[in-house]
Amino acid sequence: MLLNDWHPVALSTQIATGSMLATDLLETRVVLWRDSGGVLHAWEDRCPHRGTRLSMGSLRDDTLTCPYHGWTFGKEGRCTRIPALPQAPLKAHVNVYHVQEQYGLAWVCLGTPAHAGPPAFPEFGDAQLRKVWCGPYDVRSSAPRIIENFLDMAHFAFVHEGILGDQQHPVIPDYSVEAFDDAEYGSGVWAKQCHAFQPKASKAATGGSDIEYTYRVVRPLTAVLTKHPPDTIREAIALLLQPLTETTTRAWIILALNDFTSSDDALRAFQDTIFLQDLPILESQHPARLPLTPGAEVSVACDRMSLAYRSYLKQLNLQYGVIR
């Protein structure tokens, strides 16, 4: 299923015209490169001759040259020259993947796309909200574990004390969870009417307040949190995951905020603080893959969204990064 979905792999600005960028996705080496016309390409980062990374070679005139034997490949991925055998039939072809650019990121699908494009993030198109890209953060854990942590409010008072939570206010009031299917976000599961007391809910916050949250899981490895601060417009944080392997993940975060005062660096630093507080917790969880087997872990009432997410993954028959 994940092979047929879209995954973030780089900032668009990282890939200039005439340059290459190596990355990994679902245990596959990928090379991104932008041709002279500005079009982005995504190929398997592997020469079909002897398996060398093409990204170690060169890119000139929209042609990639393998660093090992000098084989060259044109824009369609087909071999155009074998220096050691100039007259040889040119049958070799690099695996070429689907690629799109959206939300300032490059997205790759390794298989046959099950969706026309990346997950919905409608707040990105809201001109009233400022957009800031954070991360990426590399985590030694499965992508589903990271999504589940993002959906969890009960850890605020302990992992993010003094910022998103307070041990004097650990109680999580009841909230509702249900499936959704709408034109704005697509389909998935969401938690609404979520409330938590936060000493400093954002970089711009000047004091503690009760914050209302809505969480939406819009794809198996994508979640969008919307905040509803008093007397202002809703803000959003999108967590977009790049599964490198079953138990290693790169996390991308996009903020859509009503804060036009703080600098980008200050907003990133605030988000870095939050994510780096979560990091040792995530990397300590055992097993690293998310258990979907009944009774594998003990759950309580405030884990309702977590349980809904696990049920959603089971309904989709996800096998990667989980224990069935």
Automatic annotation (TrEMBL):
Keywords, sorted A to Z: 2Fe-2S, Iron, Iron-sulfur, Metal-binding, Oxidoreductase
PANTHER family: 3-CHLOROBENZOATE-3,4-DIOXYGENASE, IRON-SULFUR DOMAIN CONTAINING PROTEIN
SUPFAM superfamilies, A to Z: Bet v1-like, ISP domain
Domain Rieske span(s) in chain numbering: 6-108
This protein's name: Rieske 2Fe-2S domain-containing protein
Keyword S-adenosyl-L-methionine: no
One protein family per Pfam: VanA_C
PROSITE patterns, alphabetized: RIESKE (PS51296)
Organism: Duganella margarita
